[in-house]
Design brief:
53% helix, 3% strand, 337 residues, three-stranded antiparallel β-sheet
Length: 337
């Protein structure tokens, strides 16, 4: 019985005999527009949108560059980042130029030494986007899983690394503020706002079988956590919705509570990524061009969010899953030649 339940809760969609996993059948999920990070998850789980991880992110980046022009970051975002970096330097290292890459690493090592639960340690990871010429782009992943990227025009790889570290340091510092914690007051306010937005009633909020009730359940299960920590959890559900997995689970008769309970305690891992990549391989085989179109849209979303200084894990994970699928297709074509 437990094995059957585990199969029903697998993140893969499955597309029938070819490439389907045991127990997973049915038509592929629709290829409609994917939800934006932070969008409501109603189509799959009936949940209102998660609260934003931070309130200090800049406005959207300007439209794509013109002939040879390079879009710059919003002035308010750049000034906010620099102010936080200067303040952090003054309180931890004294006045003078601060090495933001070292400061970000020291910040997370300090959190770990003070008892923060970091399952994968305190190491901050950087990833450069391969490029032969500027602008260079760098992503930084924090120990909890949150991801940020260089938000400025960076003429060197070192500058791209510093830019990513700056925005990550600002978010890390502000995430420590008491107002960024999930408290009883925060839960009541968020649920009330969700009820107003969805024209719900108070009885719905107390019923775990409704979307609003499930939203309350998730908030209460994460009481005491920060906005970034909660966003990391929501990223899993955003990916499940984007991939069509939530819809597939519902068709396999999984209850909302089963899905919430299972994925609230499951970290985003290679098994989830591989199963989602297989779904996109199957979609591409059924609808040629689906993968390339989704990848192009995802890369645009990722760039826009990066230049606006936003948290990027949802967009970045989507891109990585799609590239994994593309690689699997390429390997299949090579072996078939």
């Amino acid at each position: 019985m437990e094995a059957v339940r585990a199969q029903r809760l697998q993140p893969g969609v499955g597309t029938g005999p070819r490439g389907a996993r045991p127990g997973l059948t049915g038509a592929p999920a629709g290829l409609g527009p994917a939800p934006a990070a932070g969008s409501g998850l109603g189509p799959g789980l009936g949940l209102p949108p998660p609260p934003p991880p931070l309130g200090l992110q800049g406005p959207p980046a300007p439209p794509g560059p013109g002939a040879g022009a390079v879009p710059g970051p919003p002035a308010v975002l750049r000034e906010a980042v620099e102010a936080v970096v200067r303040s952090f330097a003054k309180h931890t290292q004294g006045y003078g130029r601060v090495n933001v890459v070292e400061a970000l690493q020291e910040f997370w090592q300090m959190k770990q030494s003070r008892g923060a639960e970091l399952r994968n340690g305190a190491l901050v990871l950087y990833e450069m986007v391969p490029a032969a010429s500027p602008p260079y782009v760098c992503y930084v992943t924090l120990p909890g899983g949150s991801c940020f990227g260089s938000f400025q025009f960076c003429p060197t790889k070192a500058e791209a690394r510093r830019s990513a570290a700056k925005i990550a340091l600002m978010n890390s510092v502000f995430n420590e503020h008491p107002s960024r914690r999930i408290t009883d007051d925060f839960i009541e306010k968020s649920v009330s706002e969700a009820l107003a937005s969805f024209n719900g009633n108070r009885e719905e909020a107390d019923n775990p079988n409704t979307g609003i009730g499930a939203f309350r359940f998730m908030l209460e299960s994460n009481k005491g956590k920060s906005m970034l920590e909660f966003q990391e959890l929501m990223t899993v559900f955003q990916l499940l919705h984007w991939n069509g997995s939530l819809k597939a689970m519902r068709e396999r008769q999984c209850s909302r509570q089963e899905v919430l309970a299972h994925y609230s305690h499951r970290a985003l891992d290679d098994d989830i990524r591989n199963q989602m990549a297989l779904d996109w391989v199957n979609r591409e085989q059924n609808i040629p061009g689906a993968l390339s179109r989704e990848l192009a849209a995802t890369e645009r979303e990722l760039d826009e969010a990066r230049l606006a200084g936003k948290e990027l894990r949802f967009h970045k994970e989507k891109k990585d899953i799609l590239l994994l699928a593309a690689g699997q297709l390429g390997s299949a074509h090579s072996s078939g030649c």
